[in-house]
Amino acid sequence: MMSHDQLLDLLRRHPNQYVSGAMMSEELNVSRTAVWKQIRKLEGAGYEIEASTRLGYRLVYSPDAISSEELTEARSSQRFGQSVHYYEQVKSTQDAARELAEAGAPEGTLVLAEEQTGGRGRMGRGWVSPQGKGIWMSMVMRPHVPIHCAPQLTLLTAVALCRSLRRLTVLPIGIKWPNDLLIHGKKISGILLESAAEDERLKYIVAGVGISVNLSERDYPEELLTKATSLRIEAGGAFSRSAIVKDFLAEWETLYDLFLQEGFSAIAALWESLSVSIGQKVRLITPQGELEGVPVGLEESGAIRVERADGSIVTIFSAEMGEPLSRS
Amino acid sequence: MMSHDQLLDLLRRHPNQYVSGAMMSEELNVSRTAVWKQIRKLEGAGYEIEASTRLGYRLVYSPDAISSEELTEARSSQRFGQSVHYYEQVKSTQDAARELAEAGAPEGTLVLAEEQTGGRGRMGRGWVSPQGKGIWMSMVMRPHVPIHCAPQLTLLTAVALCRSLRRLTVLPIGIKWPNDLLIHGKKISGILLESAAEDERLKYIVAGVGISVNLSERDYPEELLTKATSLRIEAGGAFSRSAIVKDFLAEWETLYDLFLQEGFSAIAALWESLSVSIGQKVRLITPQGELEGVPVGLEESGAIRVERADGSIVTIFSAEMGEPLSRS
C-alpha cells in the first residue's frame, strides 16, 4: 500500500514541475489507478494538483496547518483565543461555540475548524468552507453592554478584520455595510454575530468569522464566482492562515477594549474610513420595503444614514444592501 | 384503596367546615394515617387544607384548571396563544418554548405549565412556581424589528400584563422599571424576555411571564414574604387563571400590534402612567457602578432617564433598581 505521504513527497521533490503518471506508478510500485485515487484524496484534504493527460501531475498548492498549539503559544496576556477548540471537521463552528457559550465558556473561547460541513452565513444561507483553505472560526464574547450595542460589535468585528487583512495582504479591502469584506466588489469574508439577551442585557455573543484565504476558483460553484473571491485569487499567492488568525485576534481585542473603554465613536470613524458603501447609490431591502439612496454615514447606534433622491435622510437599522447602482 | 376523589368529595360536602379525622376514617373505611397521606397528596396538587388537631380538616382552596381546550376555544382571529403546549409539569416553560422557537414554531406559540420544577427568573435566579396556583407561561414572538427594540417589548409586556390584571382584580398594581409588577411594594409577577439575534436582526424572542395568582403565604419561603405576594393574598380571594390568561393574551396582542404599526411612543406613555418608579428616589446598580437618583421618564429606546442630586440627567439602559429610598 502506498500512503498519502509517499505520493506527496514525490510531488514535492519536483516543485512546479509535472510528474508523469507512468513515472509515479513505477517509482511507488502501484497501479496508475491507485495513483489517481491518492491524488483525489490529497485534493479532498486541501491540496491542489494540476492534472494534464499529456504531462502528468503538478502540485500547485499545499494547505498550511492551523494548529491549536501554534495559536496558543506565548499569548498569556491576550483574552481572545486564550482557549482554542480545534476541529479537523465540524458541522458549523458557530453551533459548536454556541454550545460552549451556553455551558458557560469564558470570553475569548475560540472554535476553529479546518472544514465545515454545514457552515452558515447570514439569514440561514450556506457558506463555502472547504478543508484546509480558509479560516472558519467562532468566538464567545461576553461584553457587559446593553443589547443595543450588539450591532456596534458587528461593525467593530468588520473593522478589525479589514485592518488586519489590509496590513497582511496589502490588498484593497473595503467594508460593505454592515459587515461584508470586499475586494473589487467581490466578497472575501463573512461575519455573523449571534446574540443571546435577557431583557436589556446581552448574555453572550457568538461571533462567527469566515475568511476565504487560499481558496482557488475551483473551490467555488460557478454561479458564485462573480460575487466571491479569496485572498489567494486576488494576490496571486497563498497566505499563512495561522498568521492571519493571530494578527486578527490581536487587532480585534485591541479595538474591543477601546470600545469598552471609550464607546463606539472611534470605531464608527474607522468603519467609515474603510467602508466602500458610503457615497455609493444602492438599493436597500428592509423589512418595511425597498428604497434607493446614498449611504452618508453611521449613526452612534450602528445604523446607517441614507440620503434619498429628494434630499431626505432615513436611518436604516436592518437591511440587505444590493450592488452599487450607476448614479442616475 | 381510597382515591383522592373520595376524600375531596367528602371535604367538599362540608364547605368551610372542619371534618374530623375520625369521621373521615370511618366514612371512607381507611386508617387515619391513610387519610393524612391523602391530605398531603392533595396539598401537593395545589389544594389547601387547614388541619387542626382538635377539629380535623377543612378545605380552604381548590386549584382551578387551565386547560388547553378552554384557551383555544373561539380564538380564530387571535395569534397569541393560537397554538398551546400545555404541561402538567415542566422544568421551565422558558426552556420548552425556546426549543420550539429554535425548531421554527410560529409567533404566538404558547407554553403553559401547571408546575415548574426549575422556573427561572432574571439573571439565573429561581422562581417559585408551585402546582395549580400560578400562571407560568412562555410565548414565542417573531417581530420584524431591529435588535434595539427588544427592551421596548419587555416594557410593552409589562404594560399589557399590568392593564389586564388591574382590569380583572381592581388591585393597585404598578410597574417597577423595567418589568416587575408590584402591589404595595411587593412583587406579584415576573417577566423575562430572552432574545436571539443575528447581527442587527431579531430572530425570535421567548417571553416568559410568571403570575402569582392564587398562591398563599405558605407557598413562599419566609424570607420572600416581605418581597413577594399574590393576587389572592392581596384581594382576599382566588381568581380564575384561565380568565387571566385569556384577557392578558388579548391585551398583549393588541398593544403589540399597536407597537408594530405606530412605534413605541404610545406604549412608553402607558408605561409611564402605570409606573411606580417615576418620581421615587432609588439606588441603581449598573454594570458601570452604583448611582442614586430619581427616574423621570422613559427614552424612546426603552432606557430610563434618571435625575441625580446635582440636577444632571443620566440615561440608564440596564440596571438592578433597589427599593425606594426616603427622600433626603
Automatic annotation (TrEMBL), chains A, B:
Gene3D superfamilies for the chain: 2.30.30.100, Bira Bifunctional Protein, Domain 2, Winged helix-like DNA-binding domain superfamily/Winged helix DNA-binding domain
Major enzyme class: ligase
Binding site for biotin: Q116, R120, G121, R122, K187
Catalysed reaction, written as an equation: biotin + L-lysyl-[protein] + ATP = N(6)-biotinyl-L-lysyl-[protein] + AMP + diphosphate + H(+)
Known DNA-binding region: 21-40
Keywords: ATP-binding, Biotin, DNA-binding, Ligase, Nucleotide-binding, Repressor, Transcription, Transcription regulation
Pfam families: BPL_C, BPL_LplA_LipB, HTH_11
PANTHER family for the chain: BIOTIN PROTEIN LIGASE (PTHR12835), BIOTIN--PROTEIN LIGASE (PTHR12835:SF5)
Protein family (similarity comment): Belongs to the biotin--protein ligase family.
Protein name, as recorded: Bifunctional ligase/repressor BirA
